[in-house]
Amino acid sequence: MKQFLARHSPLVILAGLCIVVAVLSPEFRTTGNLQSVAYRTAVVGIMATGQILVILTGGIDLSVGSVAALSGVVACTLMKNYGLPVPLVIGAGILTGLACGLLTGFFAAKGRIPPFIVTLGMMMAARGGALLLSGGRQISAISDSFAIIGGMRGWWIPVVITVVTAAAFSIVLTFTRFGRSLYAIGGNLTAARLSGIPVDRVRIGAFVLCGILAGFAGVMLASRTGVASPNAADGGELDAIAACVIGGGSLMGGEGGCVGTLAGALIMNVLVNFCNLKNINPAWQKVLVGALIVILVYYDNLRKRKAGLLKD
Questions:
Q1: Element housing 265 (H / E)
Q2: How far apart are CA 258 and CA 249, in angstroms?
Q3: Quick one: DSSP state of residue 137?
Q4: Which of 28, 46, 55, 298 sits a CA distance of 20 to 30 A from 245?
Q5: Which residues contact 122 (CB under 8 A, 6 or more apart)?
Q6: What single DSSP character describes residue 139?
């Protein structure tokens, strides 16, 4: 039982947190509010799903927020200036994320540059590219059909996309050679290389998938807000990393999963939602959420140590 609870602690923490918040704030239990929490988790959930793939290898991607902004700007620029159909526009946004992920993955794996440095550079470059392409202004006049994936015609659409994405990558991590290779590389890079795993190729693949999901998240965010802003998803990389860590991911690599990551994103949004319902000052919200994140991660690590799943 201890091992079961330790392995599924993000879901247990999420359930316990929802019970506590529902007791303290009856407004939280309303259908509309629960829909809002799920709806607002979609973009972060998709970015975090890509982020956990990189974290499993022992790396980190600081560029997902900027890549999301650039992808949204590229998609909406093509739509507004050239009148491209929605499927091509979405594909262009995803390809933008793919290109960014391929570059960071190549320099991290083949160039032997620490992922922190490579993705920090990409974060600045992608944000600058978004500002240059948009002229520092928001891009509006988005078609109605484009707004569908962002939930403008149904809050459940981005939620379903996020859940399906997390479920699909959970299957990849559990039942495919690529998924097991990610865990192996994060667990012991040298042993993974000696066992015949194409380490560089797998690491590049993780960054590419992370970029693709970041690009799609940027397109979804532009669809949801109705405009593409070069400052969109500012701080999104920190939210994605926090969701991964809260969800049981280890920044040392080799530990974590997509379901737990999605639960981590929900935990963060439940905390923020509770603060908003209680009209807590936004400055204090950051203090409270930050403190609770540290407490939850400490508690999660403590449970894993007692269950023998985490060693000092």
A1: helix 258-277
A2: 9
A3: S
A4: 28
A5: 62, 63, 66, 67, 100, 103, 104
A6: B
| Averaged pLDDT for residues 186-215 | 94
Alpha-helical segments (H) within the chain:
2-7, 9-24, 31-56, 64-82, 86-109, 115-134, 156-175, 177-187, 189-194, 199-225, 236-246, 258-277, 282-306
Task: Dump pLDDT digits (tens) for 145-197.
Answer: 888 888 877 889 999 999 999 999 999 999 999 999 999 999 889 999 999 99
- Smallest CA-to-CA distance from 43 within 209, 206, 207, 237 is with 237
- In the three-class reduction of DSSP (H, G, I as helix; E, B as strand; rest coil), residue 126 is classed as helix
Round to whole Å and give the CA distance between 201 and 115: 15
Q: Across the chain, which distance is largest between two alpha carbons, in Å?
A: 59
Asked whether residue 264 is assigned to any structural domain, the reply reads yes
Which amino acid, one-letter code, is at 34? Answer: L
Query: Smallest Cα–Cα separation from 208: which of 65, 72, 94, 121?
Result: 94
235-260: average pLDDT: 88
In angstroms, the CA 11 to CA 14 distance is 5
The neighbour count for residue 299, using CB atoms within 10 Å, is 12
Domain that includes residue 120, residue range: 39-306
Counted domains in the chain:
1
User: pLDDT tens for residues 61-119?
Assistant: 999 999 999 999 999 999 988 888 999 999 999 999 999 999 999 999 999 999 999 99
The residue written with tokens 């949004």 in the block is 269
Query: Is 152 among the domain residues?
Result: yes
CATH code of the domain in which 247 resides: 1.10.3470
Which pTM value belongs to this model? Answer: 0.92
Q: Are 204 and 92 in contact (CB under 8 A)?
A: no
| DSSP 8-class letter at 233 | T
Could you give the dihedral angle defined by the CA atoms of residues 204, 208, 211 and 216, in that order, rounded to the nearest 10 degrees? -170
Asked if the structure places residue 289 within a domain, the reply is yes
Q: What are phi and psi of 113, to 5 degrees?
A: -95, 135
